[in-house]
Design goal:
Elements (H helix, E strand, L loop, with lengths): L2 H9 L4 H6 L4 H13 L10 E6 L2 H16 L5 E6 L8 H8 L4 E4 L11 E5 L11 H12 L3 E5 L6 H7 L6 E4 L2 H9 L7 E3 L22 E5 L13 H13 L7 E6 L10 H8 L7 E4 L8 H7 L2 E4 L4 H7 L4 E5 L18 E5 L2 H11 L7 H12 L6 H14 L2
Parallel strand pairs: 1-2, 1-4, 2-3, 4-5, 5-6, 6-7, 8-9, 8-11, 9-10, 11-12, 12-13
Length: 411
Amino acid sequence: MSFNNKIKNFLFCQYTTIDDYFPITKAHFFKFLIDKVTGISFYKKKEIHVNFIITSKAEIRVFAPILNYVIDNSIKLNCNLLYAKNDLNFDILLENKIKNSEHVTIQSSPFYLLNYSHSVNLICLDHQKYNKAHKIGINIIESINKKNSKTVCIQHGGNQDDYVKGQLTSKSINQIVFGEIIYNRFIEAGYHKNHVFLTGNPLHDKLVKTKQNLNLNDSRKIISLITCMHTEYDKKSNPKACYIEYLKNIYQSINFEDSILVIKMHPYDSLTDNLYERVMLELKITTDDIKIVHADNLEYSVYDIISVSDLVLSRASTIIEEALMLKKNVIAYDLFEDGSSMYYDFLLKYRSYNKIISNAEQLASVIKKNIKKPLYNENDIDELIKNSTYKLDGKSTSRIIDAIRVISRTQ
């Protein structure tokens, strides 16, 4: 072991876990020593610094509207982006904004995560219940907590039972949650109200700004399929065969004389083996009848697609709640009773939500019936909004900024 490494290991043994994801370089090392000697820290006192810890596409999705809001409104927060993986990126428009921003910078030094009383460390994936998938976030947050720095887990999922149980095992000291259902679960679990912040979903601020035209130039009804083809059947003996059967049943249940199908791909759906396209070719369905919108398409967001849909199909996704809030009829179609759609059964009390298991003929019948007119009532919508996103007023992101400011001032 070199002399430099011996010194580093002696002085920074407590940083070992974080060093796995944000390696301590010589530059970081000497900067840290200079700061210790001179008393000058990375951060100026009384300024609020927010460290966005990016371990997955979940953080990319949730952090994007927050960063856009900070940059577009010249919010006085010093935002540091720390990427625990090299293959993660924001969309090109936001990337360009970040490059030109005075308040948002990309950092690599692990010392930004520790020892700073005014810094707030944000993450989405640090749930002990999912210790394998959330390993990076769990390790990082545990290390930061040992230094008594401020940690915050921002909700990234919906109100389905498996997700709520997962977030309740978050390692972060503070929680930012979107709706009353999960907020009440935290309070019931013994969390102090000073550590749980109810804000609404920053992604839902887009719901008041959605486009109303996909430029399809088609008079048929619009059915959208918004789900994912990468995890829900992975425990089955042949997951790919399940996904193919799933798509075949959906495609063959739609009357393309009356309807067109718009598919919004999930960020983790494979492009190299695009199952949506494969089944289209097998069934000889053309792009006149099925339009596929890739996940990285910046022209139309998932909310743009939902807003113009006459009917939304899914299986297990937060868009189920979002589509219901937008007064759309939703069908959750699954192949198995124990499939991931079961976690959304709490929505079955709403008239505009249906669940179909396996039976393609029943699916075709329910599609034909539900595409005719919305089935919601206003009380249902009010309850869904309160439970899922607190308020649908376009101000959720600003409430998150307010929560960050409060957390930064706590001892």
